[in-house]
Amino acid sequence: LEDVFVEFERRPIGAASIGQVHRAKLRGTNESVVVKVQYPEVEGLFRGDVRTMIMFCKVAQPVHVPALEEIEVQFMTEFDYRKEALQLQAVRENMVRAGFVNGNEYDAVCCKKRAFNNSNSRCGA
């Protein structure tokens, strides 16, 4: 963390089912950003829960297996913050083209599989 951020608030400002959000400042620019961090092991726990439900349904309610398998596939996209960042960028570009937002608000998303931050400067993380 110290290589990327000069400040990083340990107490989250928001939380959801798979992660939480922290305030931070980028090293070098001192720019304020928000950083989304995934809870450790949440992906494995989720996969295990869904696999358990699928195994149960194969025995007790096989008609529900295809729906659960599709739910599993769709939810797995939520665990890769790189894909989420690309999707957010595409939405932003569409909103800029439509005139709903200006093009300068966020010009970079620095992202790893399990954490990303939105900022308006390039970061080396």
How does this model look, in words?
The protein has 125 residues and is α+β, with helices and mostly antiparallel strands. The chain is 39% helix and 24% strand. It has 3 helices and 6 strands. The protein has helices at residues 42-60, 65-76, 81-98; strands at 5-8, 14-15, 19-26, 32-38, 108-111, 115-119. Strands 1, 2, 3, 4, 5 and 6 form a 6-stranded antiparallel sheet that branches. A hairpin with a 5-residue loop joins strand 3 and strand 4 (32-38). Helix 1 (42-60) packs antiparallel against helix 2 (65-76). It is flat. Residues 120-125 have low confidence and may be disordered.
Structural class call reads: alpha+beta
Query: Which ranges are low-confidence, i.e. pLDDT below 50, for 5 or more consecutive residues?
Result: 120-125
- Helical fraction equals 25-40%
Give the termini separation: 9 Å
- Biggest sheet character: 6 strands, antiparallel
The overall average pLDDT, rounded, is 83
Helical segment count: 3
Q: What does the overall shape look like? A: flat
- Fraction in beta strands: 15-25%
Count of distinct strands? 6
- Our Rg estimate from Cα atoms comes to 18 Å
The sequence of SSEs as H and E is: EEEEHHHEE
Report a brief summary of the structure.
The chain has helices at about 40-60, 65-75, 80-100; strands at about 5-10, 15, 20-25, 30-40, 110, 115-120.
Key features of this structure:
125 residues, flat, single chain, 3 helices, disordered C terminus
Helix/strand layout:
Layout: E1 5-8, E2 14-15, E3 19-26, E4 32-38, H1 42-60, H2 65-76, H3 81-98, E5 108-111, E6 115-119
Antiparallel strand pairs: 1-3, 2-3, 3-4, 4-6, 5-6
Helix pairs in contact: 1-2
